[in-house]
Known about the structure:
Oligomer: heterodimer
Radius of gyration of chain B: 21 Å
Strand order of the largest sheet of chain A: 2-1-3-4-5
CATH class of the largest domain in chain B: Alpha Beta
Largest sheet of chain A: 5 strands, parallel
Low-confidence stretches of chain B: none
CATH class of chain A: Alpha Beta
Order of helices and strands of chain B: HHHEHEEEHEHEHHEHEHHHH
Helix content of chain B: 40-55%
Largest interface: A-B, 30 and 31 residues
Distance between the termini of chain B: 45 Å
Strand content of chain A: 15-25%
CATH architecture of chain A: 3-Layer(aba) Sandwich
Helix content of chain A: 40-55%
CATH topology of the largest domain in chain B: Rossmann fold
Number of strands of chain A: 5
Number of domains of chain A: 1
CATH superfamily of chain A: Cobalamin-binding domain
Structural class of chain B: alpha/beta
Number of helices of chain B: 13
Radius of gyration of chain A: 13 Å
Strand order of the largest sheet of chain B: 4-2-5-1-6-7-8
Bound molecules: guanosine-5'-diphosphate, magnesium ion
CATH superfamily of the largest domain in chain B: P-loop containing nucleotide triphosphate hydrolases
Strand content of chain B: 5-15%
Largest sheet of chain B: 7 strands, parallel
Amino acid sequence: MDKKIKVLIAKPGLDGHDRGAKVVSRALRDAGMEVIYTGIRQTPEQIVATAVQEDVDSIGMSCLSGAHNKLFPKVVNLLKEKGAGDVLVFGGGIIPDEDIPGLKESGITEIFLPGASTEDTIEFIRNNVKQGV
Amino acid sequence: MEDLVDGLLSGKVRSLAKAITVIENDRPGKRELLKRVYPKTGNAYLLGITGPPGAGKSTLTDKVIANLRKQGKTVGVIAVDPSSPFSGGAILGDRIRMQQHALDEGVFIRSMATRSHLGGLAKNTVDVIHLLDAAGKDVIIVETVGVGQDEVDIVRIAQTTVVVMVPGLGDSVQIAKAGVMEIADVFAINKADRDGADKLFSEIRAMLDMVKGEIKPEVFRTVAVDDVGIEELVQGIFAHGARVEESGFIEDKRARKAESELRAYLVDNIMERSLGLHIYDDVVKRVAAKEITPMDGVEELFCKLGMEKGEN
Ligand SMILES: Nc1nc2c(ncn2[C@@H]2O[C@H](COP(=O)(O)OP(=O)(O)O)[C@@H](O)[C@H]2O)c(=O)[nH]1
Ligand SMILES: [Mg+2]
């Protein structure tokens, strides 16, 4: 049986712009996924606690405040600490090109820049989440 | 599976979360899991919160959690939201209102989509309630929109069900609809900061005067966003539980609860087993070709399952 993919869409950081996050959430829903949306201004700790309770397959984070270099890797590290290192993490938002290699290095599997199509995101999740136990 | 059960019983969050996924996705080992967990259940107070979309159920749940935490009680929450009938996906947004509790170890919140299967929601929810109960949560809150038999079945299982209403939504219609009167143990008129709260209050009271019943539901006014009226509501909830306990109607309530639980499984099991029969596709074809009526088709399936022929 096909298992439903569960994705947490989270907005870490202090910026209050969640239009992008909402667009992605709707696109994922329309692609048949179950999306947990937690609203703006979430700390990495809150994001990870939520991901663990909801047992999501993937976390997508959008950050426009410029704090991505600090916040995204923090989420990955906390996930590992909680034994949930298998959760697929991706990011989006306004992220300078030169930051991308470092983010990927730290365990963010993919970064979607503004203008990336939601289809790409859907493809990416489908191809990369660990299905199974 | 052993690890999962041990982890869950010893309060490990990740084990509990994984176990819930086993239930939700009908994974192998589900029956075994429930068998091990079931003997440890029966200690939690089960609270249903239901009402139309946008009434403030999640906001109210958030404030009720805070109140219960102040009393030192641990809380489990199951927040049910509808799946899209088109894609089968869902956006589960109830947590937005409850994120202040995200880091509290005494609170476990899980979002569930209704998904599409018939009857399955109620059954899955009951199973998840058992897991939260076995994991030692003192109070378990189930938030649902409360439409459809499935959700009514869930609500029936609760010790106390709070029906949330808001002024100005075509009031008496709301009340009469969906057998709300029948399932409500306590009413919360939320958004009482708005015009029409008094009118709604008297309408509910008038309606309650007409129904005969064991115990009359109390009606409370709340402004969930401003944390107004929550203390009284929570007291009213437990007062209801206590009254049921004292009244001798507890046996009725227990029987009703057991029956609802049984029914939730029944519907789902019959459906699952029937769909799993190898003659199923053939029966569908013959009904489509009008060789047999749907009713005859069902009889054939039931016959195959070894069930006795119905009266009609
Ligand atoms: N004015 C007012 N708004 C409220 C109150 N309670 C909740 N809301 C708002 O109503 C909207 C829906 O609330 P939510 O809890 O998500 O409703 P649910 O769909 O029933 O879970 C949100 O914007 C809340 O801020 C209240 O008591 N008064
Ligand atoms: Mg809600």
